[in-house]
Amino acid sequence: MDIQDTLSNSKKRLDAQKVRIYLCGVTVYDDSHIGHARTIIVFDVLRRYLESAGAKVELVQNFTDVDDKIIDRARAESSAAGIVSGRYIESYFRDFDELNVMRADSYPKATEHIGEIIDYISTLEKKGAAYSSANGVYFAVSAFSRYGVLSKKKIDELQSGARIEVDESKKDPLDFALWKFSKDDPSWDSPWGRGRPGWHIECSAMSTKYLGENFEIHGGGRDLIFPHHENEMAQTETCTGAPFAKIWMHVGMVTINGEKMAKSTGNVRSVRRVLDEWGPNIIRLFCLSGHYSKPIDYTEDLLCEDLAKWRQAETCYFELIHAGGPGGGASGMVKEMSASFDAALRDDLNTHLALSAFFGMVKVANKMAAEGTLGGDDARAIRPELERMMGILGLSIPEITQEEIQEIDGMITQREELRKEKKFSDADRIRDEISGMGVELLDHGHGTVWVRREKIRAEN
RNA sequence: GGUACGGUGGCAGAACGGUCAUGCGUGGGCCUGCAAAGCCUAUACAAGGGGGUUCGACUCCCUCUCGUACCUCCA
Questions:
Q1: CA–C1' A353–B6 (A)
Q2: Could you give the CA distance from residue A52 to residue A45 in angstroms, rounded to a whole number?
């Protein structure tokens, strides 16, 4: 497949059988929000697609668990950094498991790689790219002549535009911390003095450890391009002397009603909250509704649209289960939609077009079902393809037990008899009862089909 | 100020140098005991402004403009 590479600003072919991906995860000082969810869902779909296409994927996603914000939070709670980060790592997994995000192969933490980080800084020091000063150990940007290539920034412009107070102990305002001196917890001994790692160095040390010096894809949110990824690249390539990631892949931001999500404006949408309101499938549809590289705006209207689409997909899923009898003629359509689904994802993970193919198939199947032309052969052609697409998109229909099926079928039979006797109010009572169980009835000319509806709180 | 990405019908959103997907929405009708689901049909002057290249541009180039993000907290 082809993926847009931030560094070369062009699409790059990815045809390796083994794809190693390093995804910059979250700093665990608070609950995850919808922006984190988008990035992680995009990479989840990338991973699922690559695996379905036969590639062996190794996905590593870090947790930044040592950071000023974590320390501040711990201080505010009279707690310890480890307690705070531990709590938010737990909440991360609760949220993202529920979002149906597959687990990465590993989730390395900065605090568990202090030895590797120190070794990394030592190597940089030996190469003359790091120096120790009053406040910490810094990376000398001057040691990396290509500094700025990833974010397309010119060094002299960066200096004049710097709006943060300059640390006088640095040789150059652009130099960034590899190690910050501190005696307070959390801190570790190092050859330069007690302290803790800077932000960027963990990703260099851990990506190299788990994926090697040169791997296929390095990704994260667009806001990480500068300074995080720029700095990572400078460190890593200086250290290894080899090119770092083959492809840099960045996911666009999520805005809320057209505005940036910010604590100060109080418009941060936590994953927990949107999950409670909309459930995993609709959030995934939302996050995949536009191209990953572009920003998307979180609005009630768009979520409602995704809800309507999800209802169609549910309908289709159950229509296929119930379908039987004569029919045929769907197989051509299935092949076509399947091909366009794959072609869309192959071209820079165009999930919007892939969803068009998915819902195109859903629409055709639902139409056939309503007309009574959806036969057993059709269902056998459509269903595996529908499930394959849902698998790649990470959409899932809750399991339904055999007992529930029997109970519902029994009630439907009762209702049918009442309807034949024209006892409509009694029949409607049964329909209401079934509806209370989260099951909707579709009366077709040729019989009644039931659909289990996912409960969406925002719907009411 | 700099950099990046974008500005396509009411909304969302693709592709493509020549025919401007698709979905949602909206109007009307059909089906139904009723509803839901589904269908049929209609609907939209669609491309931020201005230049240029071209037989022809939404698509390429220039310019202006607007939006969003980033410029050492940020997914």
A1: 19
A2: 10
Residues of A 225-284 whose CB lies less than 7 Å from any atom of strand B: 225-228, 251-255, 258-261
CA distance A434 to A413: 12
Sign of the alpha-carbon dihedral angle for A239, A243, A245, A251: positive
What ipTM, to 2 d.p.? 0.86
Give the mean pLDDT of A69-76: 90
Cα dihedral A73→A76→A81→A87 (10° resolution) = -70
Closest CA to A225 of A150, A154, A147: A150
Give the residue with minimal CA–C1' separation from B39.
A367
> How many angstroms is C1' of B62 away from CA of A178?
45
In angstroms, the CA of A319 and the C1' of B36 are apart by: 14
Give, as ranges, the nucleotides of chain B with any atom within 7 Å of a protein CB. Answer: 1-6, 11-15, 21-25, 31-40, 67-75
Residues 125-184/A with CB < 7 A to strand B: 151-154, 157-159, 161-164, 173-174, 176
Nucleotide nearest to A25 (CA to C1'): B75
**Cα separation values, A370 from A51, A246, A276, A373, A382, Å:** 35, 49, 32, 8, 15
**Can you give the pLDDT at residue A172?**
82
The model's pLDDT over A187-233, given as tens digits with 9 standing for 90+, comes to 999 999 999 999 899 999 999 999 999 999 999 988 888 889 999 99
Average pLDDT in the A275-293 region?
90
- Measured between alpha carbons, how far is A47 from A55 in angstroms, rounded to an integer? 9
Which pLDDT band holds residue A158 (cuts at 50, 70, 90)? low
User: In angstroms, rounded to a whole number, what is the distance separating the alpha carbons of residues A88 and A83?
Assistant: 9
For residue A247, what is the enclosing H or E element?
Answer: strand A247-251
Task: Please tell me the total number of residues recorded for chain A in this structure.
Answer: 460
Which CA distances in Å does A230 have to A169, A172, A196, A219? 22, 16, 21, 12
Domains of chain A: 2-251 (3.40.50.620), 271-393 (1.10.730.10), 402-459 (no CATH)
The enclosing H or E element of A389 equals helix A376-393
pLDDT at A168 over 80: no
Question: Would you state the pLDDT for residue A431?
Answer: 93
